[in-house]
Amino acid sequence: MRRPSPLPLLLLLAACTVGPDYKGPPDAAPQSEAAGQFHRAGSAPVDVATPPARWWDGMGWDGRGDPELAHLVDLALAASPTLKAAQARVLEARALVAQQRAALFPQGNATALAAKARIPTGALSTADNQINAALAREAITNPSLFPGGTPPHIDIPNHVTTELYNLGFDARWELDLFGGTRREIEAAAAQTDAAAAKVEDAQVQLAAEVGQAYVGLRDAQHRLDLTRASAAAEHRMLDLTVDRRRLGTATDADVARMETQARQTDAQIPPLEGQVEQAMDQLALLVGQEPGTLDAELTPTRPLPLPPAVVPVADPAALLRRRPDIRAAERQLAASNAEIGHAMAQLFPNVSLFGSIGFGSNKVDTLFRSSSLSMIGAPMLSWNVLDWGRVRAQIRQASAANEESLAQYQGTVLQALQDAESSLSRYGHQREATFQLAAALEVATRAQRLTDARYRGGTATALEALDAERQRLTVEQSLAQAQAQTSDDYIALQKSLGLGWQPVDPARLPDPPDY
After folding, report:
1. Closest Cα partner for 197 from 55, 18, 65, 25?
2. I need a surface site. Which of 65, 164, 181, 316 has the fewest CB within 10 A?
3. Are residues 422 and 498 in the same domain?
4. Which residues lie below 8 Å from residue 288, measured CB to CB, with a gap of 6+?
5. Do 150 and 246 sit in the same domain of this protein?
6. Is 305 in contact with 487 (CB distance < 8 Å)?
7. Is 354 within the bounds of a domain?
8. In this structure, which long-range contacts are made by residues 76-80, counting pairs with CB atoms below 8 Å and at least 24 apart in sequence?
9. 403: buried, middle or exposed (CB in 10 Å: 19+, 13-18, 0-12)?
10. pLDDT bucket at 7, cuts 50 / 70 / 90
11. InterPro entries, alphabetically (predicted)?
12. Distance between the two ends of the chain, CA-based, in angstroms?
């Protein structure tokens, strides 16, 4: 009776992959995904249109962008050490995938040996004496055996010289019958995708940091100019008060009050100068350059970049698809799901195929003869049935890690929605406050003009005119701070929407140096 071939059974087992199959992430925020807009969208002038990834191109003044801001962001995205470190982690994950895939194929080794050995044989000296003593006794007993009556002396060497030559090749193939290795590959591939998403998230964070640092620089420069102008006005008021004291129309207390005010304003200038220098150094760090490198480029003051009149934000469902940190958390969830299957595969037998072929001889000229050929091939099955307690504990550990990844994914989704809603609220209310201060500046400017007109007409003093100018400068400083905060909140909104990244293809990243 002919026995059935085991090949179909092996092929059937090879198609088996234990463990739960990944079915995608759960609906962590079904209400928000179904909503057509954000809950806080009414507090800001927004549009449901698709927002541009390069949000910084829309910031500027007089309807134009800020080329310096765009240059700094592009430079940071190309040269930041933070991004380079994240990209290196992608290469590490990709290399791990290649290692796991290599485990699916046979592993082989080739060997070659040529040896010559001189082995001492100290025990042969005793045999030498015993043989020669026996010959002497035989010569006495049978003198006719040895002409002349003296037996020959036999010298036995005290060492042995031998040679050995061997050429061989052996291979081992561990059959992934239950999918443990394939689950490892699945987990490693998901980790690679997660690392790529983290690079994209780092781009989002970096672009926002550059934008906020640049806004901080222009704000500090603007407030420094306004403070210097305010200090100059207060010193003119002090000089007028001193003149009035000489004429008897002002007291020493008036002079002291004006001098105190002028010195307090003077004291505000050095910290602002320090803020300007710190902002330039921070920008140099973000773009991967040494402190002071950007001073010549950034020292000339420019207007503060302002956000556009209407901000496109799309809808919550688009946010959940766009944010890289959500995609990274989802890929981590997929990887942890595959780790459960890898742990479960250890419950089943491990089947390997082993084979070896080689030639061995003590002479070179006989090495490749058929008599020197040796071959062996055998399947090997190992099943540690007494280790199931440890394996089941590993399965429980992998399952708990998967539950943790699931909770982290849900938390990431909810945190992303909270960031977007809060950013919309902050931006909308800050924008409204900025409009109020702009209106206040218009009033202060009109009051200064009226006071100047009265001063020229002789109905107001020079001190009153200078005080009106100082009040206008104070309101203008408050407006400058509010505008900077509005721009900063706009950038935070873009970051919360997950904007500012370009897709990362791990296969297109440059390979690390091969040493």
Report:
1. 25
2. 164
3. yes
4. 75, 76, 79, 80, 81
5. no
6. yes
7. no
8. 76/206, 76/207, 76/210, 76/286, 76/287, 76/288, 77/203, 77/206, 77/207, 77/502, 79/287, 79/288, 79/289, 80/206, 80/286, 80/287, 80/288
9. exposed
10. very low
11. MdtP/NodT-like (IPR010131), OMP_efflux (IPR003423)
12. 59
> What is the CATH number for 455?
1.20.1600.10
107-120 sheet: strands from edge to edge: 107-120, 159-175, 350-361, 373-382
Same domain, 140 and 81: no
The kind and range of the H/E element at 414 are helix 388-457
Q: Range of 340's domain?
A: 30-104+178-348+390-508
Residues 147 and 199 in one domain: no
Spacing of C-alpha 189 from chain mean position: 16
pLDDT tens digits along 334-369:
999 999 999 999 888 888 888 888 887 778 787 788
How many CB atoms are closer than 10 A to CB 182?
Answer: 22
The 3-state secondary structure of 242-300 reads: HHHHHHCCCCHHHHHHHHHHHHHHHHCHHHHHHHHHHHHHHHHHHCCCCCCCCHHHHCC
CB atoms within 10 A of CB 142: 9
Cβ-in-10-Å burial (0-12, 13-18, 19+) of 222 comes to: buried
Residue 484: both structure tokens together = 């900077």
Residue 463 in contact with residue 244, Cβ under 8 Å? Answer: yes
pLDDT band at 379 (very low <50, low <70, confident <90, very high): confident
The answer to whether residues 305 and 218 touch, using CB atoms and an 8 Å cutoff, is yes
| Residue 416 and residue 292 share a domain | yes
Rounded CA-CA distance 268/484 in Å is 18
SS3 of 357, please? strand
What backbone phi and psi angles, to 5 degrees, belong to 186? -60, -45
Same domain, 394 and 496: yes
Question: What's the rounded Cα separation, in Å, for the pair 71 and 93?
Answer: 31
Q: Assess contact for 185 and 309: CB atoms under 8 A.
A: no
Q: pLDDT class for 61, splitting at 50, 70, 90?
A: confident
**H, E, C per residue of 429-462:** HHHHHHHHHHHHHHHHHHHHHHHHHHHHHCCCCH
